[in-house]
């Protein structure tokens, strides 16, 4: 069986339903394999170590069903993944606020999840939104130029706010991003319960501080920092008219407990996976990288 762009029928509908449950956006569940469905299939394939051609053959079909089975298992018992394996931290499912194609939940290791929840509750209380593009990255996910081999996402210590929730529409986006010098950003959440502020907002088009936005905001960067989450810098390429995927304003990583020059990438992987689980996986070859030296 092969499904590809312009295919129609019940099988396409099934694929769309599965993709939706897994947090992808295939467009309407209408049994028509349009552009949105194809994009969602490519994303799924790339995250599951499959050739990202947007065509559903037997391998992709099987992977979709396996991923669905894992997803259902997680929903029934979301915190049970590491139970019984003493010494490992749990992966904890935490909520996010759905916005456009963003997710309504994601996974962090337990200490990062608790810290995130304290931030989430403050934002909720003020009437703001915290969106998500996901957090945990599968150990099987292929390493590519846009994906660091030693990403904090593998270790359960990083989260991404929904990439499409700022830098587009200053008047409506849930977040406003302002340049903070040296390729760093400061992220503000629009919230009725926030403080009145005037912020110089950056857009993808301008790539630097531009129009002033007056509204009520919470300083999300400070809220995250108080709980141990640090921001990262935009890639240099972003400022040379590179793709907006280099902006990285959405990425926050939990650095609490890490010692510069001492903590290793491998050591952090082993806090959430057994050695048997990580040894065959691509990230394990970078296990010797050291935090603050060659692992950021
Ligand atoms: Zn990220």
Please describe the structure with a list of short key phrases separated by commas or semicolons.
296 residues; alpha+beta; Muramoyl-pentapeptide Carboxypeptidase, domain 1; Muramoyl-pentapeptide Carboxypeptidase, domain 2; three-stranded antiparallel beta sheet; 8 helices; 27% helix; globular; binds zinc ion
Summarize the structure in words:
This protein has helices spanning 10-21, 35-47, 58-76, 110-125, 220-226, 236-239, 265-269, 275-278; strands spanning 91-95, 105-109, 158-160, 175-179, 185-202, 209-219, 229-231, 251-254. The strands form three sheets. Strands 3-8-7 form a three-stranded antiparallel sheet. It has a three-stranded antiparallel sheet with strand order 4-5-6. The chain starts with 9 loop residues before the first helix and ends in an 18-residue tail after the last helix. Helix 1 packs across helix 3. The protein has eight helices and eight strands, in the order αααββαββββαβαβαα. The protein folds into two domains: 10-76, Orthogonal Bundle (Muramoyl-pentapeptide Carboxypeptidase, domain 1); 91-286, Muramoyl-pentapeptide Carboxypeptidase, domain 2, CATH 3.30.1380. 34% of the residues are buried. The mean pLDDT is 90. It is α+β, with helices and mostly antiparallel strands and 296 residues long. The radius of gyration is 20 Å and the shape is globular. Bound molecules: zinc ion (ZN). Zinc ion is lined by residues 153, 158, 160, 251.
């Amino acid at each position: 069986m092969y499904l590809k762009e312009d295919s129609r029928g019940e099988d396409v509908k099934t694929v769309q339903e599965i993709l939706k449950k897994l947090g992808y956006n295939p467009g309407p569940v209408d049994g028509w394999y349009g552009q949105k469905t194809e994009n969602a299939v490519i994303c799924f394939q790339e995250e599951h170590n499959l050739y990202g051609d947007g065509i559903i053959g037997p391998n992709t079909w099987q992977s979709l069903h396996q991923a669905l089975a894992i997803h259902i298992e997680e929903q029934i018992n979301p915190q049970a993944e590491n139970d019984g394996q003493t010494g490992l931290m749990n992966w904890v499912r935490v909520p996010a606020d759905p916005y456009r194609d963003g997710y309504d939940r994601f996974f962090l290791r337990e200490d990062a999840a608790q810290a995130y929840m304290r931030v989430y509750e403050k934002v909720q209380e003020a009437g703001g939104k915290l969106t998500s593009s996901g957090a945990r990255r599968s150990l099987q996910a292929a390493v590519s130029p846009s994906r660091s081999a030693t990403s904090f996402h593998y270790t359960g210590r990083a989260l991404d706010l929904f990439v499409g929730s700022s830098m587009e529409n200053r008047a409506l986006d849930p977040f406003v991003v302002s340049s903070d010098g040296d390729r760093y950003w400061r992220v503000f959440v629009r919230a009725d319960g926030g403080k009145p502020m005037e912020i110089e907002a950056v857009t993808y088009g301008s790539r630097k501080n531009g129009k002033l936005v007056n509204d009520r905001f919470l300083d999300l960067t400070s809220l995250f920092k108080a709980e141990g989450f640090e921001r990262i810098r935009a890639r240099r390429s972003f400022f040379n008219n590179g793709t907006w995927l280099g902006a990285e304003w959405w990425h926050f990583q939990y650095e609490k407990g890490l010692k510069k020059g001492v903590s290793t990438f491998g050591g952090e992987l082993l806090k959430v996976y057994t050695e048997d689980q990580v040894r065959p996986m691509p990230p394990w070859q970078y296990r010797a990288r050291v935090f603050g030296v060659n692992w950021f």
